[in-house]
Write a structure and sequence with these properties.
The structure is a homodimer. Helix content of chain A is 37%, strand content 19%. By secondary structure, the first copy, chain A, is an alpha/beta fold. The first copy, chain A, folds into 2 domains: 3-117 and 298-309, ATPase, nucleotide binding domain (Nucleotidyltransferase, domain 5); 126-294, Nucleotidyltransferase, domain 5 (2-Layer Sandwich), CATH 3.30.420.40. In chain A, β1 (3-9) and β2 form a beta hairpin. In chain A, α2 runs parallel beside α3, α6 (188-200) crosses α8 and α7 (215-223) packs across α8. The model of chain A has no long low-confidence stretch (mean pLDDT 95). Chains A, B: One of its GO terms (molecular function) is ATP binding. Chains A, B: Keywords: ATP-binding, Kinase, Nucleotide-binding, Transferase. Chains A, B: Pfam families: ROK.
Chain lengths: 311, 311
């Protein structure tokens, strides 16, 4: 039986999986990401872990279809990373290095794009070929999958949904250097920012005042019927829903998959996004599904494996 | 030698081309689009014209690789058109009908998407595989080509760039029923609208007052150094450039190809768009080319043929 490896490189750990050619996860493990010295050990560590696993399972090279890898950085068509703050990398010919270490065919893409492919394959986009995944974490990432294939973009920067400008009047600067990026309103950090502005208004009675405000506490307060928290959720939904309506006029997906830490709030999120989406979407693209990501931390290894097993 | 047909169905004429398998245009002609009786004759007319041409040139069916067709409507993955105002069609199984008339393999896509593929192949996007084409006509159409292939979208509505909302404060309604669509500012009609608002300001001295204002007269006045016209062009460039910056964060093309009637103004357009684009684009996608469409009326037949010759 043939198999492949799916690898998801994060700033703290590298998640790894061994997949059968039918797509079944045969094994799953993690190694530490050693980011010291500009992350020079990372690719060697990954390669050693793959070769060890092959030895442990007595897998011959001819049985391994390849290695798929997701990294937190833009990746060019040749598998070159020009810089990753999370890993400490500057210019790195990541695909070439991994292939020379392991002797296995390797494909590398941006981690958010890979996660989108994983969710299409086994998660929130199951059964679809055209999806957009939005990852609401500390920042906002995203991935576009068209006809079952990742859209990497000419500079490896497709799916950078968090940096769509949604407010040209914004005076606070985003991490990217621009002003008014979606990430400033609809990420976990952005939701806290919206909530703090709401709390700064005098005379508001809300349970949000009782504890340190977080995206989680906002949506818990929404579930408890808190009016101020609901207004924050409506603002969040408007920024995100309007943006996705614009995005639908460009790539017209069948499903939007909402993932990342914020999505742990659950189904409560969806109506806020969907209501604003429907207010603004072109009539031809109103019939779109919104689902929650379903694979959690496995999205990356699954998407990486899928790149090898055939998009 | 093998060949194929490229067909571009417009509301007035159907443009048709015969292409060699190397991509050379061997013949080019037009027939009238008979839109009466819900356009019921259109597909039969196209089929008859193809069969005539095959007879005239003594082409056997085995020599014809297929027929590519662009239509002014969204097209589903099965080649079904659910309605086209320009052609009078309601629900029409266009691919199936054409294939049964001609016995030739047929592929149908939206005309703006097809034109984008044509421009990638032989026009403003020559040498590239990831392009976005923006067609600035009476309205605004567009097409997205990723890895050399048209992105049709789940509802056949990808590339509807004209209906991205760029102004949530707008009170005038767009043809689509929404408010603040790009088309209301950056199409030929939109540019006239911006110019008329500028002219309505008292005390403005501008050569635009001398004649009926049009997109053409605005850009001619810009070339003549007219200050008011230049301000209108700056507004146009801001709406379009900011939108393309947002779009680049989603699909990250290598080139934006600007086409349609407005693009006949020539190179004078580009700096207005590019300046605003660079103000707002994410750092990773700033290095993008802006080119003018180069194929004119042939973009449709070329893109249609390219769908058959292999994207």
């Amino acid at each position: 039986m043939k198999c492949c490896f799916g690898v998801d490189v994060g700033g703290t750990t590298v998640k790894m999986g061994l997949f059968g050619e039918s797509g079944k996860i045969l094994d799953k493990w993690e190694i530490v990401t050693r980011t010291e010295n500009k992350g020079e050990a990372i690719l060697g560590d990954i390669s050693a872990s793959i070769l060890n696993k092959m030895q442990e399972r007595q897998l011959d090279k001819s049985a391994v279809l390849g290695v798929g890898v997701g990294v937190p950085a833009p990746v060019t068509g040749d598998g070159i990373v020009t810089g990753s703050a999370n890993l400490g990398w500057k210019y790195k010919e990541a695909k070439k290095e991994l292939e020379s270490f392991t002797g296995l065919k390797t494909r590398i893409e941006n981690d958010a794009n890979v996660a989108a492919l994983g969710e299409m394959w086994k998660g929130g986009g199951l059964g679809q070929k055209n999806i957009v995944m939005v990852t609401l974490g500390t920042g906002i990432g995203g991935g576009v999958v068209i006809d079952g294939k990742i859209v990497p973009g000419a500079h490896g920067s497709a799916g950078e949904i968090g940096h769509i400008c949604v407010n040209y009047e914004e005076t606070d600067v985003c991490g990217c250097g621009n002003f008014g990026c979606l990430e400033q309103y609809a990420s976990a950090t952005g939701i806290v920012r919206l909530a703090k502005k709401k709390l700064a208004q005098a005379e508001i009675d809300t349970i949000l005042k009782k504890e340190e405000v977080s995206a989680k506490s906002v949506f818990e307060a929404v579930k408890a019927g808190d009016a101020a928290a609901t207004e924050v959720a409506e603002q969040f939904g408007r920024y995100l829903g309007y943006t996705l309506a614009n995005l639908a006029a460009v790539v017209d997906p069948a499903v939007f998959v909402i993932g990342g830490g914020v999505s742990k709030a659950g189904e409560v999120l969806i109506p806020f996004i969907q209501k604003s989406y429907l207010e603004r979407a072109l009539f031809a693209v109103k019939d779109v599904k919104f689902t929650l990501a379903a694979l959690g931390n496995d999205a990356g290894i699954c998407g990486s494996a899928k790149m090898i097993l055939g998009e």
